[in-house]
Structures are given as C-alpha cells and as structure tokens.
Amino acid sequence: MTFLEHQAEHPTWLHILFNRNLFIFGLALEPNEVFLRWLLIQRTKYSRLYNCNLRGWYVGKDITEGKKYFLEFLGFKVIELLEFDELYNALK
Predict the structure, then answer these.
(1) Judging by beta carbons within 10 Å of its beta carbon (0-12, 13-18, 19+), is residue 8 exposed, middle or buried?
(2) 63: closest CA among 44, 76, 47?
(3) pLDDT score for 82
(4) Could you tell me if residue 40 is inside a domain?
(5) 4, pLDDT greater than 70
(6) What mean pLDDT do residues 14-38 have?
(7) Over 80: is that where the pLDDT of 11 sits?
(8) What confidence score (pLDDT) does residue 12 get?
(9) At 59, is the secondary structure helix, strand, or coil?
(10) Is residue 13 part of a domain?
(11) What is the CA radius of gyration of the chain?
C-alpha cells in the first residue's frame, strides 16, 4: 500500500478539518489560540478556492462582537447560549 492510498483510507485530522463540516463547542478562540484561528482562515480559503461549500457551527456563551464577526466571516453560524446547560438538556 502506498502512502497516498493509506492517506485516502485514514485521513489525517487536517484532512477532516479542511474537508468536513465543523461543529465547534467548548473552544474559546482566545488571543493565545492564534494557530487555531489561522487554521480556520486557511480552511475558508481552501473551501472558497475549491468551491467546497463547507459549513460550520460555533456554540458558546458570552461571545464578543469581534469573535462573532470573525466566525461569521469564515462562514460559521454562531449559536449563543445563556448557559451551557441549555445544550446539555437539548441533547438528552
């Protein structure tokens, strides 16, 4: 089995990040998480370049306007919660 055949069968986390819809929960996207922000920007560029139409959802509470603008610009639907218990109760 070649390396490329192996990659096709077992995609890396980067392959999943760049080729699948994302549901982000519990990630603060604080200023010290620059690498994650960069990855999300690259994912959006990739999606637009190859017309992948990737979708994304970001669930959190107390989301700042700047963070909300950033995520919406990247194509994420922002879902704000008053308390995380709302989400836990919805999943029961």
Answers:
(1) exposed
(2) 76
(3) 81
(4) yes
(5) no
(6) 89
(7) no
(8) 82
(9) strand
(10) no
(11) 15
Cβ-based neighbour number of residue 59 at 10 Å: 19
Q: In total, how many domains does the chain have?
A: 1
Which two three-digit tokens encode residue 59?
């669930």
The sign of the dihedral angle between the CA atoms of 61, 64, 65, 67 is negative
pLDDT tier at 89, thresholds 50, 70, 90: confident
Q: How many CB atoms lie within 10 A of CB 64?
A: 10
How many other C-beta atoms can be found within 10 angstroms of the C-beta atom of residue 22?
17
Domain of residue 71: give its range: 19-90
Q: Could you tell me which residues are beta bridge partners of residue 77?
A: 57
Q: Kindly give, in sequence order, each residue whose CB lies less than 8 Å from that of residue 80, ignoring residues fewer than 6 positions away.
A: 60, 61, 63
Classify residue 1: in a domain, yes or no: no
The verdict on residue 14 lying in a domain is no
Which pTM was predicted?
0.78
